[in-house]
Amino acid sequence: MSDTGLSWSVRLAGIWGRAESTVTKSVLAVVFALGLVAQFVKPVGDALQDKVYLGGALLTAVGYVLYSEVQRLNAVHTTHQETEQSLAATVRRLEDELQRLNQVLRPRVTPAALRTEIQQALEAGREVHLAAMSFTGETFVNPVKSMLYNLSTDPARSVHVRVLVPDFTEEIDVPGQVGAGGRFCDAPEFREHLRRMVVGHELRLKAHIRRMAARGQGTLTVEFRVLHVSPMRKLYFINTDVAYEGLYDKLDLRPDPDCAAAPGPDAAEGDLLDILGGSRLDRRSLDNGEQDRKNLARCREFFETLWQGARELTPSTPPPSRPDVS
Questions:
Q1: Spatial separation of the C-alpha atoms in residues 118 and 144, rounded to whole Å
Q2: Rounded CA gap, 301 and 91, in Å?
Q3: How far apart are CA 39 and CA 37, in angstroms?
Q4: Tell me, what's the pLDDT at 48?
Q5: What is the dihedral of CA 45, 46, 52, 56, to 10 degrees?
Q6: Measuring CA to CA, how many Å separate 324 from each of 135, 142, 148, 149, 208?
Q7: Is 312 helix (H, G, I), strand (E, B) or coil?
Q8: Which of 273, 261, 262 is nearest to 186 (CA)?
Q9: For labelling alongside 97, which of 86, 220, 233, 311 has CA 20 to 30 A away?
Q10: Which of 109, 118, 106 is nearest to 238 (CA)?
């Protein structure tokens, strides 16, 4: 078919689509008028009485109208469903693209970025507030110790450090060890080892209080608190405007070096269950959009709630005779 023929077909279909409703209404109005007149005008009624074919034709016309209407409603319903499905697919694609762009524009950062930002805050700030919630505090305390040791002279500097860690004086399954049947259970010796690590970190960090004052680097306050909870989330705060968030999302099963017993029926029985953190962190800041501000507020509320409910770390073992302050 030529383009001209196709164009005329489209035009005729459009004209009929617009005229169909008017023609149908006119035919039905004529049928109604004839029926009404036939009731009161006997000649007209007699004339129509024997017009069986005319009645059948009119019924056919009415049936056609009803069929066309049903087809139209079905077409509208189908189009509506297709539109909904298309919109849903479009929304899914947009969500996937948004997540991809979010990862590209604001990728997860390494702990090195956290250390760099802490260093900058310590060097620039008159008053610096640092806080952490972690496993033993090691990956936070060790870099901070080194930074404090090498700080420039600034007697007006004031540094406040808070660290929240699990309470290893109470039984806990994770971290722990693998017991009979592969079930996790408390590992008292391993837990005591972790507790001593935490105590050592606190003592070594507090050793900088006098050192900083003597060297004119400013003042330092240090507070450790403990809470009976398995470490699954890590949070680091720099003042009130920046937070770094990560997960302890890896489990490390390894033989217990203090266990000399032969392996049990389960090959893993007696293994220590340790926790390892991922190598990436999410950075939240006040200057990075509304969503980041909400996430930062959520992180701070979470930490402060746990901090208020935690208790002070009270070491029950003698401190090391010579804390390492390097």
A1: 8
A2: 32
A3: 5
A4: 53
A5: -10
A6: 20, 10, 13, 11, 10
A7: strand
A8: 273
A9: 233
A10: 118
Residue 63: the pLDDT is: 63
The length of the chain in residues reads: 326
CA angle, 209 then 211 then 217, to 5°? 85
Instruction: Give, as one character, the DSSP assignment of residue 180.
Output: G
- Residue 109 confidence (pLDDT): 84
CA distance 176 to 191: 7
The arrangement of strands across the sheet holding 311-312 comes to: 282-285, 242-247, 233-238, 127-133, 158-166, 219-227, 311-312
The whole-number average pLDDT for the span 93-97 is 63
CA nearest neighbour of 134 among 11, 236, 254, 29? 236
Cα gap 52→33, rounded to integer Å: 18
Give the model's pLDDT for residue 316.
56
Residue tagged 């937070």 (tokens)? 243
The residues, ordered by sequence, that sit 6+ positions from 240 with a Cβ below 8 Å of its Cβ are 129, 286, 300
Q: How far is CA 119 from CA 102, 144, 208, 220, 285, in A?
A: 27, 8, 16, 15, 17
Both tokens of 42, joined, read 């006997």
Specify the pTM.
Answer: 0.63
